Amino acid sequence: MRFQAAVLRSHEDPFTIEEVALRAEPDPGEVLVEIAGAGMCRTDLAVRRSAGRSPLPAVLGHEGAGVVVATGGGPGVALDVGDHVVLSFDSCGHCRSCRAAAPAYCDSFASLNLFGGREEDPPRLTDATGKGLAPRWFG
User: Fold this and answer.
1) What pLDDT, on the 0 to 100 scale, is given for residue 51?
2) How many CB atoms are located within 10 Å of the residue 93 CB?
3) Is residue 96 assigned to a domain?
4) All residues at 6 or more sequence positions from 5 whose CB lies less than 8 Å from its CB, including other chains
5) Which of 22, 70, 97, 103 has CB atoms 3.0–4.6 Å from 91's, for a disulfide?
6) pLDDT at position 116, please?
7) pLDDT tens digits for range 15-57
8) Per-residue model confidence (pLDDT) at position 120
9) Are 139 and 113 in contact (CB under 8 A)?
10) Which residue, 4, 2, 1, 116, is CA-closest to 57?
11) Residue 41 is part of which domain span?
12) Cα–chain-centroid distance for residue 8?
């Protein structure tokens, strides 16, 4: 699947709109959302000023809304194809903060949201040349 995305390649350069490719259907615990509207917030823009913290190149932007077009099923997925959703940050759902309905203070917030998520081979998200892009920003 190919689509347009705002890519940040270095902390000194502006975002560029590029064609990127998504390699696979969602894994268990994941959903694929066709985005109807998205935004860039101050957190996305702040990455340009935080050299060394977030892996680059990356597709940022974590605020959006759309429709679920595929689901990987499995635990934690309570959505169906056709459901309308709003996107936000990720949380583990199991730590003390998550269980207390305070997922913004999740013990795993930084690893899930700020540092590119998981290592993938082959990368899930690539640019037009096939080079991997950090696959996960704010879940």
Assistant:
1) 58
2) 12
3) yes
4) 17, 18, 20, 59, 61
5) 103
6) 60
7) 999 999 998 788 888 889 999 998 888 888 888 777 556 788 9
8) 64
9) yes
10) 116
11) 2-126
12) 14
* Residue 135 covered by a domain: no
**pLDDT at residue 84 above 90?**
yes
Inside any domain, residue 91: yes
Residue 136 forms part of a structural domain: no
User: For the whole model, what pTM was predicted?
Assistant: 0.81
Task: Provide the domain count of the chain.
Answer: 1
Per-residue model confidence as pLDDT tens digits over 93-121:
899 999 999 999 999 988 888 776 566 66
Work out the pLDDT band at 63, boundaries 50, 70, 90.
confident
Tokens 């894994």 label which residue? 27
Q: Which two tokens stand for residue 45?
A: 């823009």
Per residue, the 3-state secondary structure of the chain, as one string, reads: CEEEEEEECCCCCCCEEEEEEECCCCCCCCEEEEEEEEECCHHHHHHHHCCCCCCCCEECCCEEEEEEEEECCCCCCCCCCCCEEEECCCCCCCCHHHHCCCHHHCCCHHHHHCCCCCCCCCCCEECCCCCECECCCCC
